[in-house]
Amino acid sequence: MIDFQRILDRVPDYPNFLSVAQMDESTLRLQQEYPDLVEVRIIGHSRQNHPIYCLKIGAGELNALMFGCPHPNEPMGAMMIEYFARALCEDDAFRLESGYTWYLIKCIDPDGTKLNEGWFKGPFNLTNYARNFFRPTAKEQVEWTFPIDYKELHFHDPLPETQALMDLMAEIQPDFLYSLHNAGFGGAYWYLSEDLPELYERFYHAAKSRNMPLALGEPEAPYIKEYAPAVFENGGIQDDYDFVEQFGTPGIDMASRFECGTGSGDYARQYGTVSLIAELPYYYSAKIESDKLMEFTRREAAIKSETKSYENYEEIRSYYALYQDVVSEDNPFAKMLDMMLKDNQSVFEEHVAHIKADEQYNVPCKESEAFDSLEVSDFYALLSWGLLLRGAEFECNRHKGDIAQRLKECVNTIEQVMMAKAEAVEAIDYSLVPIQTLVRIQLESGLLVSGHIKDRKEKKGK
Q: How far apart are CA 41 and CA 209, in angstroms?
């Protein structure tokens, strides 16, 4: 593989995240600085008509597509592209040796990303993140609106942003696809479209050499296939569908349960594309990789976590009822609340049924699993309170008179409850990860996989 250490060493110590306007300005400025190396294309527009810029750099035989902000609360990838695009221009030797033509999109969801900008400049604590957090409902997520036909699931309504990616994929048929996600709290973990065991120790070194623990707690979903510790298969919506079909209520209407499509990596399989996701947290704790054994089973911790999650959403439901009657159809925060609350009972029952049936849970619980289930889960629960509060504020700014007064009281009530919960969450043992560290690990992970693809193709060609 190419020696890319010098590229990693030059990553700046970024103090904060770029706004969408700053991303766009920087993209256009790079093209002006390097007109012979950089092409900027508008590959589409968002639902609110914001241009989606794509940088094209290099002239290698292989094509790589990287896109940032696949979920709008995940701007880390935009920072990685911000650096990597300039590094490609400034380092002629690396650009040529890479063997790739690089297609780089800093922000695939500009509309949603703008709704997260309230925490982009800090302060970088759990409370401010949750207070300014936004994530759209599944059918409005760029990452999960790719077409799919699977059993009773038939989704063919991609968002304009998703369609822009689909058109670009069809044009370049990427050898490597990197959807630039990141986690909120935990440790480092990866998703790959195929098992590449020769890379895993290098993934681990990329994280641990920068004091980033591996995420050895519970996986994001119980059905995810594990290739190795902290490395999982990058599957599609089919996995979720099969899980619900197996553990859901008999006779469940599967077509209505699944309102979204599949993911980018699954969609890109038709082109023979190798896809990667490197999930890295803004906040971490060493507990997330501790193998210390607790005095209870993994099953007990997991069921308690699911119960806490269920009860959290039911409490949110009671406060949502205070203003639900005046919610506008275009309230983006309320849309997400509606989705979470609609499936709360069924998701709880499905997950508990799986936990009870899977003998892998009938073992002593590791501290990493307990921390994930019983403490980190409280942080993620706080995010839904942020959505609840912002949903009320959204309506408060639209109404007048008695309704406006009721909404102001509602905002105050919800904020008091949320801040009390935030105080407890802030007591969690956590540290902030510097953006520079996140960029380095994410970039190194991508260069490891892209380099592996290049080496493999060269060997096949001999």
A: 37
